[in-house]
């Protein structure tokens, strides 16, 4: 045995983001890493094909060693003594051991990952089990979030806006609270969660803005209003998008002017309720004591009238006058 | 004049995501669109180079018509009568008019965009002004968020976790509230906002988990703990990352067991305070009346003991016993 065979150099692990589905949305780096890999691994469903493999298909060669990592369970029940969690844990351990054997033999392993490997992806389970023992590199990819916004042709998030990414599997009340409290949002993992997501959009007042995107950039792509989507037709590979509010006047209520008095609570913005955040986001004009106004995030297009804390009646009169002229005014107060 | 010259076919507008900085993180589609474009437009600072142009440089040809869109202001003051907002508005209008002239003449225009075009990008201003009159297509790109997680080699968001993307320009109290209420987070646009972001990380109890990434995938890249970062050294092109908590035991306090009693408030999850969310996220075991427990999002690795509403004293005893054995227990109650 040569010295090299006794102490072989270990192989390198790559988590390769493939993007949302259209093979042309792979990065140059993803193509390069696959070309240089000895082993190409990918997750696949038990009775189905691997979406990851199909995205990268054009770049696979006959001399690539392929390692399909076949999920033992998807949504069906399992007779594993540890239940779903136990079956998955065992599967990840076994998969990592298979990849480790290649790495120990000095082979470069590319694990294909739909979208971005570290964003709700299966690659993470391999990374956690192997990256402490082997050299590992993650090639980031285009997420389904970016793909959905691109196919809708609508800005996702701008300027001072907050974007919240939510799994549709959260309880409906939690989804409602999160949707009410954010500017933009994307809800992942629809399918069976769709009725709860739709309910949360409605309860949080976001349904009119919400869009629906299925299989963005892939065959069978579908986009539309979430409100018009038939719940029975929604697969897991669909997302709900609440786009940017900036320059999107359809997203705020129109109608006669109004004054909403908004209490910022004993802890200021820390304890703002979703209803308060909503009222602040919907207002065209903010009126209040400068100290409190400064605690409210600046929104493009929103006018702020700050004054000191000695002119309360003038401020109220001013706010009412603006409302009479058709403006939606929020009076910001402490307490 | 031929008929075609009298009624020329209008050109097509592309917003082309270039990814986070490393030219190899451009997508195949981005390269293809640039190759087919007649005009390549990109934003650039008044006294500096265009980062977008430098990412795509290898794909630009001498027969490309280049349209640099030079910002009239960056952070300095302006003597425009409309101030910063007025100067920018005028700039976007003038830029759109220049691109429209090319499109009217039948030229294909590719607007280069760092990262993803619809994610806090400048391309959006062109899209809003032109996409209603011309055919437009957005090529999504890898965001700096995905790049930062890749360079840290740490999962960004998993399973049932919520990811919040925040601009560092928000008020510090607002940042604190948002950071306390989310699982994972990325704070964009650091630079001068860094002290406030650091303060918010500390106040929300997230500082120990927070990572710092500067110029991910670009020359001069720097990564580390946010807590160790010198505030004076932070440029605008840096982000703060609070990674996934799943399988990241360093992210929750260790020490002796404890019982925290968590009130879900009159409106359930809708009105949870950041402190409540934090206590629920940090707990190893949740104990409570099943109806209330079902309203709390499931976290991997967290054990739930639900019971009916008639066994309150048994429940309390059970929770205290777990805490005595070193567990962090949250007792979930209504009201």
From TrEMBL, chains A, B:
It comes from the Bacteria. One of its GO terms (molecular function) is precorrin-2 C20-methyltransferase activity. The keyword Transferase applies. PROSITE patterns: SUMT_1 (PS00839), SUMT_2 (PS00840). Gene3D superfamilies: Cobalt-precorrin-4 Transmethylase, Domain 1 (3.40.1010.10), Methyltransferase, Cobalt-precorrin-4 Transmethylase, Domain 2 (3.30.950.10). GO terms for biological process: cobalamin biosynthetic process; methylation. Pathway: Cofactor biosynthesis; adenosylcobalamin biosynthesis. InterPro entries: 4pyrrol_Mease, 4pyrrol_Methylase_sf, 4pyrrole_Mease_sub1, 4pyrrole_Mease_sub2, CobI/CbiL, CobI/CbiL/CobIJ_dom, Uropor_MeTrfase_CS. Residues 12-223, 259-335 form the Tetrapyrrole methylase domain. Belongs to the precorrin methyltransferase family. This is Precorrin-3B C17-methyltransferase. It comes from Streptomyces katrae.
């Amino acid at each position: 045995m040569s010295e090299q065979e006794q102490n072989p150099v270990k192989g390198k692990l790559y988590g390769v983001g493939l993007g949302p589905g259209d093979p042309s949305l792979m990065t140059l780096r993803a193509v390069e890493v696959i070309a240089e890999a000895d082993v190409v691994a990918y997750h696949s469903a038990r009775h189905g094909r691997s979406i990851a493999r199909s995205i990268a298909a054009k770049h696979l060669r006959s001399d690539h060693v392929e390692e399909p990592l076949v999920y033992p369970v998807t949504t069906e029940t399992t007779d594993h003594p540890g239940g779903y969690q136990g079956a998955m844990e065992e599967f990840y351990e076994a998969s990592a051991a298979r990849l480790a054997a290649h790495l120990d033999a000095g082979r470069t392993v590319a694990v294909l990952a739909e979208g971005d490997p570290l964003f709700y992806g299966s690659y993470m389970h391999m990374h956690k089990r192997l990256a402490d023992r082997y050299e590992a590199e993650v090639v980031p990819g285009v997420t389904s979030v970016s793909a959905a916004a691109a196919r809708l042709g609508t800005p996702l998030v701008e300027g001072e806006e907050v974007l919240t990414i939510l799994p549709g599997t959260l309880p409906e009340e939690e989804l409602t609270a999160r949707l009410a409290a954010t500017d933009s949002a994307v809800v992942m993992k629809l399918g069976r969660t769709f009725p709860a997501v739709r309910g949360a959009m409605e309860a949080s007042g976001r349904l009119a803005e919400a869009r629906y995107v299925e299989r963005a950039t892939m065959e069978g792509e579908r986009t539309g209003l979430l409100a018009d989507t038939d719940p029975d037709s929604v697969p897991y590979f669909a997302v709900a998008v609440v786009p940017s509010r900036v320059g999107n006047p359809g997203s705020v209520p129109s109608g006669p002017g109004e004054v909403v008095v908004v209490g910022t609570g004993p802890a200021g913005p820390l304890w703002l309720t979703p209803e308060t955040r909503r009222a602040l986001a919907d207002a065209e004009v903010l009126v209040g004591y400068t100290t409190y106004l400064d605690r409210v995030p600046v929104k493009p297009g929103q006018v702020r009238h700050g004054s000191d804390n000695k002119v309360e009646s003038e401020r109220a009169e001013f706010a009412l006058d603006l409302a009479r002229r058709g403006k939606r005014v929020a009076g910001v107060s402490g307490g």
